[in-house]
């Protein structure tokens, strides 16, 4: 590995640098010369129509980017991932979230064992449990029907199910209440439980490791609330009917007091941020039902197969990954905005933040040498049209290049009234208008022609040339959600492969965890913590003083 040339010294890289130095014509010119790019620069996968025509690229740019992907053997690493090789080097693990959505007759081996039957056995166990909760057959300790489901988890054990529950709300059992508690701030659990009846509440403790302090602390407090809070059940046996666990760690689950029969298993080859289509999705499955959950898995699989089989020039995750590299490494873009024009995707970008930034926020290569190039971008964004009245100003007229993804749907959900459905065209008109305004802008001549006074012309001019991708689908269904998530999973994979980083570990979260544990006694007991720096010591002292006043 260390014999491979540094990325930036590869001829394919310097060819891209030279190409960038030559300059790309403005999108206005590119479209004027070649209107056909609107049809040519579109890739279809499953139900997704992905338009990348509004990018600062030509056929030559694409060819050069493809050469970089070939030189860095992106598809070689992809195949190693699908084969179950241990490509998560620092944790010495296979990376097989794709096995979670493999059909029952597929064979995916880890250390010589086909893991697909185990995946389907857990899916069946989840389905059985979800059906029992949904039908009322699974009752609480007092015999009352479960009406509330509270998922306790953090990171991948929260963001996935919470995001997908929001996304698929229109498909959920509306008679049930779902809440997601992640923050160790006690206010999170308080607000999630304050209006619930313990006798009707099921807690799902979701933690791959079952050692994450936030989750274990919240789960412990939830157990106290169940037993001793207002309306508490005052019987330890109640825990068996009101707590289930989703984890890879049966021992810790048992130590916590949850019956191992009530544990839904997954495996160390499922990364936390790739886990919501594993047992971690149990709350979602209860919400939408097993059939819809399986439709979502089918959606993931459509994109898995596309990523695995589509030729490079029509491979959507590859193209999106390479476009990100074009901006991050050759245009100095620091961030990437994801802007869904769907209220239901309100947590989509937050989910992608973990997927992308925990995966590719790295500064050493796979063999430990430092990288000498930019890696993962800052990912951000909120649903349109809200962002338009907040930060779009900066995207349009600020000094930073911010590539953006627009995501929209042709049809609103069925459940809306006719009047609310009619608003959908206005929503989508905004999406299309933003893409147009960002790409083509408004020239000073156009502004002058509107009679704008000369001193205001510069202020009202839009340079344009801001790149966007537009992802369009007929409607937001479970399958389409699976397709979207798999698209981004594989896009992130592509970028990590080109940058030669390990996209599957997350050592960067460890130091803060260790220090928090060390500092806590200073806050609670005023203990002397050896090795605390003077700034933190002063902050702790101020905190303790304020706490007492
Ligand atoms: O933040 C680090 C991390 O390990 C994430 O990767 C993971 O999703 C999250 O913590 C939660 O971990 P667990 O599921 O083990 O509680």
Order of strands in the sheet with most strands: 1-2-13-12-10-11
CATH class of the largest domain: Alpha Beta
Instruction: Provide the CATH architecture of the largest domain.
Output: 3-Layer(aba) Sandwich
Total individual domains: 3
Q: Bound compounds, please?
A: 6-O-phosphono-beta-D-fructofuranose
Structural class from helices and strands? Answer: alpha/beta
The percentage of residues in β strands lies in 5-15%
The description of the largest β-sheet is: 6 strands, mixed
Radius of gyration: 25 Å
For the secondary structure, the number of strands is 13
Please, could you describe this protein's structure?
- The model has no long low-confidence stretch (mean pLDDT 97).
- Strand 10, helix 15 and strand 11 form a beta-alpha-beta unit.
- The chain is 48% helix and 10% strand.
- Helix 7 (156-167) runs antiparallel to helix 15 and helix 13 runs parallel beside helix 20 (478-499).
- The strands form 3 sheets. The protein has a 6-stranded mixed beta sheet with strand order 1-2-13-12-10-11, sandwiched between helices.
- It has 549 residues and is of the alpha/beta class.
- The chain has helices spanning 11-22, 27-33, 37-40, 59-71, 74-83, 116-135, 156-167, 186-193, 213-228, 239-242, 250-256, 282-288, 290-309, 316-330, 348-360, 392-397, 418-440, 444-449, 454-460, 478-499, 510-524, 534-548; strands at residues 42-45, 48-51, 109-110, 113-114, 148-152, 177-181, 201-206, 243-247, 263-265, 335-340, 378-380, 404-409, 468-473.
- It has 22 helices and 13 strands.
- It has 3 domains: 29-72 and 299-500, Glucose-6-phosphate isomerase like protein, domain 1 (Rossmann fold); 100-288, Glucose-6-phosphate isomerase like protein, domain 1 (Rossmann fold, 3-Layer(aba) Sandwich), CATH 3.40.50; 509-548.
- Bound molecules: 6-O-phosphono-beta-D-fructofuranose.
- Pfam families: PGI (PF00342).
- This is Glucose-6-phosphate isomerase.
- One of its GO terms (molecular function) is monosaccharide binding.
- Pathway: Carbohydrate degradation; glycolysis; D-glyceraldehyde 3-phosphate and glycerone phosphate from D-glucose: step 2/4; Carbohydrate biosynthesis; gluconeogenesis.
């Amino acid at each position: 590995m260390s014999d491979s040339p540094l990325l930036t010294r590869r001829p394919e890289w310097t060819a891209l640098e030279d190409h960038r130095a030559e300059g790309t014509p403005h999108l206005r010119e590119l479209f004027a010369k070649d209107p056909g790019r609107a049809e040519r620069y579109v890739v279809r996968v499953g139900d997704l129509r992905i338009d990348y025509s509004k990018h600062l690229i030509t056929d030559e740019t694409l060819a050069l980017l493809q050469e970089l992907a070939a030189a860095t053997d992106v598809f070689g690493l992809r195949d190693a991932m699908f084969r179950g090789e241990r490509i998560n080097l620092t944790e010495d693990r296979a990376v097989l979230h794709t096995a979670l959505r493999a059909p029952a007759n597929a064979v995916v081996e880890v250390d010589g064992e086909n893991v697909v039957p185990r995946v389907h056995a857990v899916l069946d166990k989840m389905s059985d449990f979800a059906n029992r909760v949904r039908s009322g057959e699974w009752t609480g300790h007092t015999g009352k029907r479960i009406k509330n489901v509270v998922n306790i988890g953090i990171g991948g054990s929260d963001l996935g199910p919470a995001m997908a529950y929001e996304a698929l709300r229109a498909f959920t059992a509306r008679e049930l209440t779902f809440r997601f508690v992640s923050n160790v701030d006690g206010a999170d659990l308080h607000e999630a439980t304050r209006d619930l009846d313990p006798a009707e509440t099921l807690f799902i403790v979701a933690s791959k490791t079952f050692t994450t302090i936030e989750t274990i602390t919240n789960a412990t407090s939830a157990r106290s609330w169940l037993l001793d809070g207002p309306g508490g059940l005052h019987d330890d046996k109640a825990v068996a009917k009101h707590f289930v666990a989703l984890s890879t760690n049966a021992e810790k689950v048992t130590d916590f007091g949850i019956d191992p029969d009530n544990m839904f298993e997954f495996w160390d080859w499922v990364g936390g941020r790739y886990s919501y289509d594993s047992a971690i999705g149990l709350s979602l499955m209860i919400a939408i039902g097993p059939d819809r959950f399986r439709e979502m898995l089918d959606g993931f699989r459509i994109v898995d197969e596309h990523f695995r089989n589509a030729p490079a020039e029509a491979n959507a995750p590859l193209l999106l990954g390479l476009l990100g590299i074009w901006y991050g490494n050759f245009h100095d873009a620091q961030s990437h905005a994801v802007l869904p024009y769907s209220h239901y995707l309100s947590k989509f970008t937050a989910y992608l933040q973990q997927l992308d930034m925990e995966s590719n926020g790295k500064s050493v290569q796979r063999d430990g040498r430092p990288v000498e190039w930019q890696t993962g971008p800052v990912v951000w964004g909120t649903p349109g049209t809200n962002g338009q009245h907040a930060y779009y100003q900066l995207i349009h007229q600020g000094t930073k290049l911010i590539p953006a993804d627009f995501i929209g749907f042709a049809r609103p959900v069925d459940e809306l009234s006719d009047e609310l459905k009619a608003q959908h065209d206005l929503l989508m008109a905004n999406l299309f208008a933003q893409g147009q305004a960002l790409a083509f802008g408004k020239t000073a001549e156009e502004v002058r022609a509107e009679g704008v006074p000369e001193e205001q012309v510069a202020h009202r001019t839009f340079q344009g040339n801001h790149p966007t991708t537009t992802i369009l689908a007929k409607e937001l269904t479970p399958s389409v959600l699976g397709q979207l998530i798999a698209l981004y999973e594989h896009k992130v994979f592509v970028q990590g492969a080109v940058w030669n980083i390990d996209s599957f570990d997350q050592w960067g979260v460890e130091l803060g965890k260790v220090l928090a544990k060390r500092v806590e006694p200073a806050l609670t007991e005023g203990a002397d913590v050896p090795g605390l720096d003077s700034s933190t010591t002063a902050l702790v002292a101020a905190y303790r003083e304020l706490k007492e006043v």
